[in-house]
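Narrative summary of target 7.
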Amino acid sequence: MNGASKKTTGSAYARQALLPEGFRDQLAPRAEQEASLVRGLVDTFLSHGYDRVSPPVVEYEDSLLVGAGAARGHQMFRVMDPDTQRMMAVRSDMTIQMARLAATRLGDAPRPIRLAYAGSVLRTKGSQIRPARQFIQAGVELVGSSSVEAELEVIAVAVEALGAVGIKGLSLDLTLAPLAGILCESFGLDINVRTRVLEALDAKDVGALGQLADEPRALFSSLLSATGTAAAAMETLNNIGFEGGAADLIGRLGELVAMLIDRLPDLMITIDPCETHGFEYKSGIGFALFARGGKAELGRGGRYRVIHPDGSDEDATGFSVYLDSLMDALPCVDAANKLYLPFETSTEEADKLRAEGWRTIQGLTEEQDAPKEAARLSCSHLYFDGAVTAL
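Modeled conformation, tokenized:
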């Protein structure tokens, strides 16, 4: 190959190393840390009786747009199936697939059913908080129970799982995504005004509520002031004097807070009743977990509705952990210790060492200086004369 050809080939390989924005290669030791975290999370899920399921990465588009999936349609990559000429989509959220399984393959299973999962999801766009467009999502879904104990269980399992993989000092933020919509409906606000109200509440912009009549403006302003620690927020919410569905939702929130304080006394709990971003399809209480001092949420969940093929629906509560945020909240791990086995090491000796837990690197050619070769291959230990020696 001449110099020009080599240069062209080198440029091609350099272009191959470039990845689209939001995608990255996960190398050792981070790739191994990520896999270990997934194992730790799922092991906790399974210990609470959740059954692991594994749906495909790609499904027909219409199956991913049912119910809760409608709010995620803009995040999905799409591709045409060359066999059926039907549009397919790459999952952007595994919760949608859990709902499909519960409504179809597991439609006749005794309720409640408990599902656990872990897998990669792809999104068309990243966000300022989560710029990655591909990441691993791991979580649980409890389908078929309308009791507040379902929310308590899911939150408790999520807290336990995060603690098991090294996250300490968790903070839980509770929200009431449907509340603002219920209140807008009770005041008879049209769709345009309702949209502006939801935007104002999400942005915590009291001034933007000035367009409203006195009664709804006063109520929504009071709602904005009910953000903070659980005790203070619940006091404000209880003093507002909600009625109907809004009162039921506030009552359920208060019941859940009391149960959480009793079961998880060390968990810091805050409430933001106006938060709707990312909780659009929730039909009840939503929640997010943070590592104290962390910027991005480790995961989120809440109550939603599973739609069945016959049009009926049922309650479900779930929680998803985002592995990119989880890894950012934990210290990087060191590279694993590896034991160099010189060329003449027997298979029996190598098998014995691996059975003892060593990761071995087998020499493939005779070496004059085994310690030097071991160091060149980034090994931490050398097997020599029947003994293991640290380098």
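The mean pLDDT is 91.
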